[in-house]
Structures are given as structure tokens and as C-alpha cells.
Amino acid sequence: MTLNQLRKINKHIRIKGITNLAFRKYGKIVTGYDFTEMIKYIEEKTPVPEEGVVCVPSAEALESTEVFKKLTSKYFGWMPIQAGYCNGMNSKLNYLGNHKSNKIIVAITDMIIFIGKLQDILEDQYDIKKVEAYFIPEGVAVEIFSTTLHSLPCKMEIGGFRCGVISIKGTEGLINIEDIEKYMLVSKNTWILAHEEYTELNSRFKVGLMGENLQVYIAKNEK
What we know:
The chain is an alpha+beta fold.
């Protein structure tokens, strides 16, 4: 599905391109790196679940690629990093998360992502009216700043979405916190505010997104 087709179906959402100047406060397009090897592995070796989303923060095969080595030294300044993937059938906002470090998302398929500013969280609440939707085209990598709230990608095709994720090592790793549902911190270096609709399925996430849980439709009869 093309972006223009998607916009016609989703008139309730203003979908911008990442070349829009407004994106600069959230992140930037990553250039000068060849992600072909990483993209090929994710396309050929990682499944898209029939329902939901599967996220693997660290995959040895991806961390053995040449681009990973270059990113470690030149892009992240020898900070320890990890490379994984996230594939799924998601089409809703559901929640917004952030990390205390920047991350790179490599779009293996066309996708839509909801993003906002960390500074707009007030007393553990975020007004969904402030969120923005951006289109990331297949094959493009973007850096997401640590001050940016971001959702899981939303699919643009019936077959779901695939993306690679490069982040500081340990991000999204398991943590041992009792009564974790009381906090925005849900895993290592990962803070999340969820919509109440989503927490009906994932009660450990803190409710904080106020307003309608936005959905990206890929067919007119979905509404």
C-alpha cells in the first residue's frame, strides 16, 4: 500500500514523512551505512507472528554483520550496543515508550510509527492529541532521540511489519522489580506509558495515555 492510499483511508490521522522538518525534533535519517546484510537476514530468517508482536533485543547473527561493527565504532563511539528485530501485526498506538539513550530503527517494510516528546508527560500522563504519526519507508534507517516517545511500528500491509533495532546493550532486558505495574519502568532502560485499552491485556504497564487509542487502518472495511 502506498502512503497516499493509506492517507485516504486514515483521514483521522495526519501522517507525515520523515523528510518533513517537523521530524527533526524527534530523530534523523541515518545515512552512510549499508544495512543490506542486516535487512536480508531479518527478511529471510525472522518470522512475523500471526498475531501480536515479537521483539528480540539482541540477535547474534545481526551483531556479526559489518554494519554493526561500523555502528559500534563510528556511530555510537565504542559504547556497547546490541542489534535485534521487531516483527508483528500491530496497527494501534497502544503505548509510548522511551529510553535514556538513542536507538536506530531500520525499516525492513514500510511502516508507520507514532511519536511524541518526553517533555509533554505531565504527572505520568500524556495527551494523545499531541502525538504525531510518521511514515518510515522500506530500507530506511532512522535514529530516534532519547527524548522521543515512540510506539511500536504499525503495519502498512496485511502481512505485517518487520524492522531492525540497534540500541545500547542491555536495553529491554529483564529486570527484577516487585509490583512493577506501579512504575513506568518495565524493562532495562525502557519506560512506558500505556493506553487503558492496552493494559486490559498487559496489566503490568502503567496507564498514562489519555484520549482515543489511535489505529492505522489498511482497508476501508476495518472501520
